[in-house]
From TrEMBL:
<protein>
    <recommendedName>
        <fullName>branched-chain-amino-acid transaminase</fullName>
        <ecNumber>2.6.1.42</ecNumber>
    </recommendedName>
</protein>
<dbReference type="GO" id="GO:0004084">
    <property type="term" value="F:branched-chain-amino-acid transaminase activity"/>
</dbReference>
<dbReference type="InterPro" id="IPR033939">
    <property type="entry name" value="BCAT_family"/>
</dbReference>
<dbReference type="GO" id="GO:0009082">
    <property type="term" value="P:branched-chain amino acid biosynthetic process"/>
</dbReference>
<dbReference type="InterPro" id="IPR043132">
    <property type="entry name" value="BCAT-like_C"/>
</dbReference>
<dbReference type="InterPro" id="IPR005786">
    <property type="entry name" value="B_amino_transII"/>
</dbReference>
<feature type="modified residue" description="N6-(pyridoxal phosphate)lysine">
    <location>
        <position position="208"/>
    </location>
</feature>
<keyword id="KW-0032">Aminotransferase</keyword>
<dbReference type="Pfam" id="PF01063">
    <property type="entry name" value="Aminotran_4"/>
</dbReference>
<comment type="similarity">
    <text>Belongs to the class-IV pyridoxal-phosphate-dependent aminotransferase family.</text>
</comment>
<keyword id="KW-0100">Branched-chain amino acid biosynthesis</keyword>
<keyword id="KW-0663">Pyridoxal phosphate</keyword>
<keyword id="KW-0808">Transferase</keyword>
<dbReference type="GO" id="GO:0008652">
    <property type="term" value="P:amino acid biosynthetic process"/>
</dbReference>
<dbReference type="InterPro" id="IPR036038">
    <property type="entry name" value="Aminotransferase-like"/>
</dbReference>
<dbReference type="InterPro" id="IPR001544">
    <property type="entry name" value="Aminotrans_IV"/>
</dbReference>
<dbReference type="InterPro" id="IPR043131">
    <property type="entry name" value="BCAT-like_N"/>
</dbReference>
Length: 385
């Protein structure tokens, strides 16, 4: 909820969008030379807000640096949140988005958690669509490639006191990216640690605020020093009788597929939306596919969104009931997991017949690709042209 401080005298109106074209278009890199998040398109979207007048008219402007007062709240107190989404080119050369309203609704939730103003998500989506249309030439026309979109909201209020922001800027930048796995799937090993905690009950774990990510870099470096690619985040709590329950992996949601101890049936387990994990859009999509997609339903998988402990995971591996595991998120869609290191003990996880990815991992990955690139009609895919 917004405080009384945030009096919204006006909201975003896409009909008032103003466009300023660049006079110096940048040279585009060959798709194979793209590195994630280092190349940017020609234009960006900006929308300002202040406590007096509410949301100002949206502007698409040439890509460039922001001008910020050094006392801006975003720089001192982390009043900043963001989203990650992609635009794709389908087989007919048309641009598509994947579940964009879900991203903007979640961005609104993040804003509210930081006492920053909400916005009309549909109107901002319309503005984003215009940005994508304008910079469509920056979307690599090749499957596996896309234009990564980064909507961000920052507090620009120049004050050293800790208070709700009186000025805010919403902006969107775009970056052409290649496939997360250039040579196909690569399974990863996780480091489960008691030393660091990503989120805790009552915190900000269910929002995309910058403060959830920066502190994880140190743990990520330590995981790498142990030969692991990502951190399996654990959280102590009463939900599991004080034991450590699993939440996320790196910056992704985590899934385990194992045989139920009592029934022997394949069961897909993932942490619940209890406020400590991000309500991932890829996570939601996978859960809906496993429950509703006719082909994937044939696998006979039961879905459980519940708290589960690292000890339960280790016991499942030792009992030979683990089938496969994967993380999921916008960047890679799914990332196969072939092992976990916990308390200096390695637990090997099956990774399919080819030793790379299991049947479910492959099924949801190719299904998601098919939808994102418009190979099959689906309401999740939003056609722009």
């Amino acid at each position: 909820m917004l405080t009384a401080f945030h009096r919204l005298y006006s909201d975003v109106n896409a009909a008032n969008l103003k466009v300023q074209l660049t006079h110096t278009p940048k040279e585009k890199l060959a798709p194979e030379n793209l590195t994630f998040g280092t190349t940017f398109s020609d234009h960006m979207l900006e929308i300002d807000w202040d406590a007096k007048d509410g949301w100002h008219d949206p502007h698409i402007v040439p890509f460039g640096n922001l001008e910020l007062h050094p006392a801006s709240s975003a720089l001192h107190y982390g009043l900043e949140c963001f989203e990650g989404m992609k635009a794709y080119i389908d087989g007919e050369g048309k641009a598509r988005l994947f579940r964009p309203m879900d991203n903007f609704n979640r961005l609104n939730d993040s804003c509210a958690r930081l006492c920053m103003p909400k916005f009309n998500a549909k109107e901002v989506e319309k503005c984003l669509e215009e940005l994508v249309r304008l910079d469509k030439g920056w979307i690599p026309n090749k499957e596996g490639y896309s234009l990564y979109l980064r909507p961000t909201v920052i507090a620009t209020h120049p004050i050293l006191g800790i208070a709700p922001a009186a000025r805010v800027k919403l902006f969107v930048i775009a970056s052409p990216v290649g496939p997360y796995y250039k040579d196909g799937f690569k399974p990863i090993k996780l480091w489960a640690t008691k030393e660091y905690v990503r989120a805790f009950p009552g915190g900000t774990g269910n929002t995309k605020v910058g403060g959830n990510y920066g502190p994880g870099i140190l743990a990520q470096q330590q995981a790498a020093s142990r030969g692991c690619s990502q951190v399996l985040w654990l959280t102590p709590g009463t939900q599991c009788n004080g034991d450590l329950f699993c939440t996320e992996v790196g910056a992704m949601n985590q899934f385990f597929l194992w045989k139920d101890k009592k029934t022997g049936k394949p069961t897909l387990v993932t942490a619940p939306l209890d406020g400590t994990i991000l309500p991932g859009i890829t996570r939601r999509s996978i859960l809906e596919l496993v429950r509703e997609d006719p082909e994937i339903k044939k696998m006979g998988i039961t879905v459980e969104e519940r708290h589960y402990t690292i000890q339960e995971v280790c016991d499942t591996v030792k009992d030979g009931r683990m089938i496969e595991a994967f993380g999921c998120g916008t960047a890679a869609i799914v990332t196969p997991v072939n092992g976990i290191q916990f308390e200096d003990v390695d637990y090997a996880i099956p990774a399919g017949k080819d030793g790379v990815a299991g049947d479910l991992t492959n099924a949801v990955y190719h299904k998601m690709l098919s939808i994102q690139y418009g190979k099959e009609a689906h309401p999740w895919s939003v056609l722009l042209d």
